[in-house]
Queue: 2 jobs
Job 1
Amino acid sequence: MAPFIETRGLYHVFRLEDGRQIAAVRAVDLTIGRGEFVALIGPNGSGKSTLARHFNALLLPTSGSVWVDGLSTADPANLWRIRRRVGMVFQNPENQIVASTVEEDVAFGPENRALPPAEIRQRVDDALALVGLRDQRTTPPQMLSGGQKQLLAVAGALAARPDCIVFDEPTSMLDPRGRHQVMDTIRRLNSEAGLTVVLITQAMEEATAARRILAMDRGRIVLQGDPRAVFAQEERLADLGLELPPMADIARRLRQHGVPVSPGILSLTELTRALEAELRAGVTPC
Amino acid sequence: MESLSHIFAAGTPLRREALRDVNFRVETGERVGIAGHTGSGKSTLVQLLAGLLKPTAGQVLLDGVPAHGHNTTARDRRRRMGMGFQYPEDQIFEGTVFREVAFGPRNAGLKGKELQARVTWALGMVGLDADTVMERVPYTLSGGETRRVALASTIALQPEVLILDEPTAGLDPRGRDELLTQIGDWHTRTDLTLIVVSHDLTVLARTVDRVIVLRGGRVSASGPVRHVLSGTATLRESGLDPLPSVLLLEQVRAGGASVRIDRFLPEEAAAEIARALEAGTRSHVTRRESA
Ligand SMILES: Nc1ncnc2c1ncn2[C@@H]1O[C@H](COP(=O)(O)OP(=O)(O)OP(=O)(O)O)[C@@H](O)[C@H]1O
Ligand SMILES: Nc1ncnc2c1ncn2[C@@H]1O[C@H](COP(=O)(O)OP(=O)(O)OP(=O)(O)O)[C@@H](O)[C@H]1O
Ligand SMILES: [Mg+2]
Ligand SMILES: [Mg+2]
């Protein structure tokens, strides 16, 4: 996989009014491949959003460097090209609303790309359909419910069709169906259209959709690997204030009760299958 | 509240009926959860409860007084309620975390050491270390830190009725669990009335006694938490998924084990399944022995 985003020795230090400094990102060396799906997890304040803002040059390194598709974010001449390649869904969708109706808001990205009107309309339609907001196209965004605003932010990023989208907790306000819809869309765009995905989330189940999970703590990447490897590190995750996906958590507790289900279980299907085997075998828990 | 309905932008082309004919009572000291799909009317409902919106029909009574009234009794009732908004970022307006969290208590007359102690207590309730964050500028905090500060501002009022709209969104798992525990302890110590809106049924299973489910602005289910959260068909019809534990227990039951469905928390579900497996084995053994 060709590298798409690379960081080398990346530090980001915020200076506070009182002179204190916060090193929000420390010594991050990271390569995200083109078409990869990476999940970024970590406790509040661990540096996820700060790191992600380097991926489309919203922030520039205090030291170290970041390249996006071979373009250094430190070179102002690259700014526009980088922003076209990497879209962003912000943690608070209200920061992202720019227009007075849902459809104009979603059209903002494509319009900035000077696309023909028919193409823009098509993209807006597609994006609204993907998040289930078609019926709200003429609604002013401030009249949307909390979850609908989040869906709008996702639609806006999709309609711009960049090479990569950073989703900063895109489902935190969504009901289960909205979550599934957004996660299915992300997964499909990644596998079918080759979209490079960086997904920041507190929902461990969503992180299991990624090919690779990175866990941050106090500015550093402290744990990484495929979902099974990361979620096998139960104690490490607990130390970080994180948790296991729901089914892995129940499986862990079953093991504590002496039911021999294997540690790699992440999904409902996997756990159901393991338990069916147990039921058939009729093994006595010890 | 009585036959509560709410229509936004009535008489305009943007008319939105957010709630229709909602009736319920919340007793002092009760803990009530509100669930429902995206856009089902949850936030509208709690804003009506807090007297922040005036219903287009019906009324909300706080201790017998209309919630949105302008007289002093109504204002006094409202002052006893604290509301944590779904996007509380927008409610933050002070220049430091201390001033932000101190704002309500200061208006209520607290000062000096007492005020300081109240702010430290409220920040502790949301898992923030007062010394580290007190002088921070709120808008430079991380997403989760900001939400915690906003929650602390509401908690610092020590309201008699605490209304929280999606309080755990954006919190890390430990922060979420600690917050729920702290609020639970607070409820145990006092007569706190708690109203929690959440799309996360696990949050409701951990915090409330009674759940109201909204669907398209109407109540689709209402009752004790055990009852409502095990009503999988109604939850699905209302656009919600049953809890992960319940989904698993349904599968295990379909696989032939006799398990109860209303084991909502992961620890309860695991214990239930382990018990059923053991019982299954025992009956297996007994059958073999008697044969
Ligand atoms: N200020 C407003 N003006 C007009 N319509 C509104 C307004 N606020 C909400 N609505 C509409 O009322 C309905 C209910 O919205 P509400 O915010 O109460 O939903 P909710 O259940 O809180 O949803 P969510 O889980 O997405 O936060 C939605 O259809 C929404 O579009
Ligand atoms: N503009 C800023 N000025 C000063 N400090 C900042 C600024 N933005 C973030 N920080 C600090 O940097 C650290 C990392 O913040 P960041 O927003 O990257 O965390 P996060 O992992 O995204 O957390 P969350 O899960 O809460 O969203 C935090 O301690 C935060 O307070
Ligand atoms: Mg963040
Ligand atoms: Mg809402």
Job 2
Amino acid sequence: MYNFEFEKPSTVADAVAALAGDEAQALGGGQTLIPTMKQRLASPSKLVSLSGITEMQGVQREGASLTIGGAVSHADVAAQATDYPALAEMAGHIGDPAVRNRGTIGGSLANNDPSADYPAAALASAATVVTNAREIAADDYFQGMFDTALEDGEIITGVKFLVPQAANYQKFVQPASRFALVGVFVAKHADGVRVAVTGASEEGVFRWSEAEAALDADFSADAIAGLTLDPSGMIGDLHGTKEYRAHLVGVMTKRAVAAAD
Amino acid sequence: MPKDSGIGASPKRREDVRFLTGNGNYTDDINAHGQAYVHFLRSDIAHGTLNSVDTTAAAAMPGVVRIFTAADFEGVGGVPCGWEITDRHGNAMQEPKHPVLAEGKVRHVGEPIAAVIAESLEQARDAAEAIELDIEELPAVVDMKAAVAEGSVKVHDDLTSNLCYDWGFVEENREAVNQAFQDAAHVTSLELVNNRLVANPMEPRVAIGEYNRSTDDSKLYTTSQNPHVIRLLMGAFVLGIPEHKLQVVSPDVGGGFGTKIFHYAEEAFCTFAAKACNRPVKWTSSRSEAFMSDAHGRDHVTKIELALDADNNFTALRTDTYANMGAYLSTFAPSVPTWLHGTLMAGNYKTPLIYVNVKAVFTNTVPVDAYRGAGRPEATFQLERVVDKAARELGVDPIALRRQNFITEFPYATPVAVEYDTGDYHATMDKLTEIADLSGFDARRKASVANGKLRGLGVNCYIEACGIAPSNLVGQLGARAGLYESATVRVNATGGLVVMTGSHSHGQGHETSFPQVIADMIGIDEGMIEIVHGDTSKVPMGMGTYGSRSLAVGGSAMVRATEKIIAKAKKIAAHLMEAADADIELKDGEFSVAGTDKSVAWGDVTLAAYVPHNYPLEDIEPGLEETAFYDPANFTYPSGAYACEVEVDPDTGKVSIERFSAADDFGNIVNPMIVDGQVHGGIGQGIGQALLEGCVYDEDGQLLSASFMDYAMPRADDVPFYSVDHSCQTPCTHNPLGVKGCGEAGAIGSPPSVVNAVVDALQSAGKTDVTHIDMPLSPGRIWAALNS
Ligand SMILES: Cc1cc2nc3c(=O)[nH]c(=O)nc-3n(C[C@H](O)[C@H](O)[C@H](O)COP(=O)(O)OP(=O)(O)OC[C@H]3O[C@@H](n4cnc5c(N)ncnc54)[C@H](O)[C@@H]3O)c2cc1C
């Protein structure tokens, strides 16, 4: 690790100001950033911790949406997002207890790891990513592996999930990291079904529109039995070929539909 | 009634108190006054010419003490190899120099090029980044068959090829074996890979070099399974330090699994640099470094063929194996695919003719050496897979086929040079049938199928050879070391005992089990006995712990030394009671004169030895301390039968192990609980190899599985509760304890049953063309096989 400055502001405004410097970086739970720094693969000159900002905490239900503060840990989502059981369940299976107690939703969405779980949940839930500057619809937010609509220094202060009528997340783990080899979040909303897939594509999280259309017509596992996904854009690595991942997307989608409640 | 002390009892492990309360003393816990830290700059390419290493800018960085490159090691020896193999044609293996720091070329990712010593580790790392390397990248060779093909890139320019040796065993049997295959009624053949593994002990390697300028003594703290071997190899072959000027200490060591047997460049470096800088130098491996610098294990590619007659008797076995050595020869690397593998190819069967061919190959990868089981898992895997395949081809029950071919008469001389002293393979198979509830399998399969899952049963046997010996034989086989063990038993005046053993405990629980033996021999409380190990200045000599040798060899040395103690103590007791030596009996810590009510206590005798007022000074010396060296007459041969039941999810290819049963014959058992633990751990590692672990390089020699993010270790929820039994006991006939060794059995015996079970599951779904899947049986591979 290289040396860095450390600040722990207590308001979003102060955090934004602290992040204005060139090499400053926000620190959520540090579960991605700290290991990267220890490996000397990142060298921010300053870390701005978001963990002391009260306005970024809390899980709140407002009508049809559930708003989660940007600095809320995975463990808190698992325990407190009771109005959205599929989301709580998903958060409760991220990494291990240490990761869940430190890692945050804002950090996960900002990082947008192609195998992370939250991106699938956000995309399937038609969530809105709320930042210090604006609100970004999930459909516009995810822009490819590790790439998002966030500007430099922009902070995710919260995430507004649209609580679906029924939902489920199925995660098939990569055996070493236990990130998703393929994860599928299915959410049935009043205005249609959304199917978001993580872990599988070289473009990061994506919506499987053919499955959505089929499920709009008939929300059952059988409705998507005949669908296949083109393996060409899938990730192929030592844990699974492109074909295997494409196949797993189908299996996990079916399972998620069957389990959705 | 289970005993509560002595041999056969299961007292809780006394060392666990300090381990579990954070009071262990591991090498990294040691900090020497004034120590500096070393960071190794390691190659990030697999193969290249080192044109220059410019340390000028780096040397001027803050905190830098000194930077070393190969130039500083001129006149210093290379890291030695401890075993020389003679090939089929009678020629010595090709043995390249293994420099401490890369000389002229880098040959694998992770090879140390330069070493920066600084006041802090971070400063050393900062400075290492400022070293300017001019490396001209060369094409790398990773695949073994490509490496030995005409025109391959050479890992070592000064060798004639990448072939280390071409070994034939037993070479004289070659023609007869080939003839038997021509005469066979049936031949089953199988090509398979024994996957490359990274041992990943919980504690990474650490080395601290110290130098005492006033006495010219050097000291090395290191995470070793055999500190005396390190002292010898490093002192004599690398640094030229005589043993009396070099102390090697391996305190608590957090797991070894073989990978901490070997002498590593970092150890020699820290010892050398401590003298050069006149201050202690510490290196603690990061986990990332461990992946690319600890010796890896396994990595064989094999074709095995089994010949059977018309009655399904095995008539001959022929194997053709490529064994990866990596870029350099690690300490015992050449012995693993040869003497620790070829000699086990008979397994539990009376196959009369066997021929094993092994080509050991250099590649641009991390050196490969012994890993839990070392050679025996590779032998067992191929044999038990091919027997299973033969049963399937012949349409016979795989257990019946095994039983039919079992060796039943002991001692049994195999056609691959070794003689099994004892065993009862039917007994362990019977026991397995019972504990695995094999008769209930069909019902369990039906239940799984009803649940949409495939269920498979895999059974296998294994034989293994522990406590490699005797020294004169292994010397003929090319070992450059003896394979005895030593023990000194020091009895104190007040009756307590210290045993200085050459065995080294790095998780095995010697501090608990060794006292159980002596407590029984003398009849005193285990609490009066202390085990000392891991320090060359305290223990006279030691070959260390590997190959499941500690109790069989080190324990036997301890028994021999204790016998000498008892013999002398009896003389003292005879004098005290004015009786003849021959009439003295020792029981429950009391010496008595046979046929009388005269007795003296153990403590009276030990006190007399050190306060010899009333003492036979004219016959014996005062004091009570004895040393014994024990060189076994033979290996010991544990054996067993294992069964694995899996469920396979046909949609995803995911395997879940539903049941795992192990019936082992370890001869006599000293501490059943510790034996259970050893078997559990071994099976866990075997399941890891079978389902999860795989060290993968890309074709450029980049290590793809370079961290736990990509190298999958087994976790608790990957394994079932095991059913383990070791009530079948045919004691070893040639060591005083009748013990055999249990440390590696689990890792040797478990991979074939897992693979046999998965193949069985797939076959049950009508995939009759799937006769083998290479490990690790990842879901993706199984799905591909299901959809082939
Ligand atoms: C062992 C292990 C296992 C894991 N397993 C999983 C898993 O199964 N599934 C999964 O999804 N993830 C997994 N993770 C990742 C984990 O969820 C991380 O917590 C998460 O990816 C990053 O969140 P963080 O709060 O720790 O962010 P940090 O590491 O602190 O930061 C990550 C990045 O996000 C930025 N950032 C942080 N917070 C904000 C914010 N509020 N606004 C804008 N930018 C911000 C940082 O500047 C940095 O660039 C695992 C991690 C580990 C170490």
